[in-house]
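Box 3.1 — From sequence to structure: Membrane protein
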Amino acid sequence: METRKFIIWVSMATMFAACSSDKKSYDATGTFETTEVTVAAEQTGRIMAFDITEGQNIDCGKQVGLIDTVQLQLKAMQVGVTRETFENQKPDVQKQIAALRQQLATAQREQRRSAGLVRDGAANQKQLDDANSAVLVLRRQLEAQISILGNSTRSLSSQSSATGIERSQVIDQLRKCHIVAPISGVILEKYVEKGDFATIGKPLFKIADMNNVYLRAYITSGQLEKVKVGQKVKVFSDYGDNKRKEYNGTVTWISEHSEFTPKTIQTDDERADLVYAVKILVRNDGYIKLGMYGEVNF
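Predicted structure (token representation):
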């Protein structure tokens, strides 16, 4: 009798252990990824400096290289001189019409004097008509001169503005010769070396933000109602051999479309053919590597 009880107890314990071993310790699995940026050359020329190494941490905005700038600097100087020439050619309108204004003022005084003499009967009407005509001619000459000088000034100003825009374009091209890191992160790959010739669009290096990584996991339709953007979850990095490390995570994205379960992914429901991708933001302590497997509990 005791032997029979022992056998029953062992059988139940075995069944319980089997059931316990079948219970998963996660709700979804996936792999870790992050924001990666491939930096390409924005100018053509010889790479004069390129001081980075793979695995190096770089701050956003830090200059890491330089493409030859000599020709662009010379062009900027040339355009600057051209603009200065246009500015110097602008006429001094007030000085150039000063003589005509003086002549007009003299003619107007003569006009007033002639008008007074005619009223007093000391001069004839022809003398006044001549004075009026002289004033009218000088006024028209002054208006014409002001118009000519104004057109010349506007033309030179337009040419000066055009060269100013051209100079700004050259300065922008010079700025693009300075190779800078667009984000703070780790250099993943380096594609060129100092002395190589760069062309516009040629990849130079790849950088990734390793401080903030994402677990791209997959959930079934039955799990959708349990997950929402902004939800706090527990994430585990999987090192193999049952070695895991726990992190706090935040759901930042849920796919609007289902997809077939990737071959490398395990889901809570192994019968599920269609799953939804989710992204979970995790603050990396330096141990999480890209492509590493991870698990999440909602």
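Summary of the box: The longest helix spans residues 125-176.
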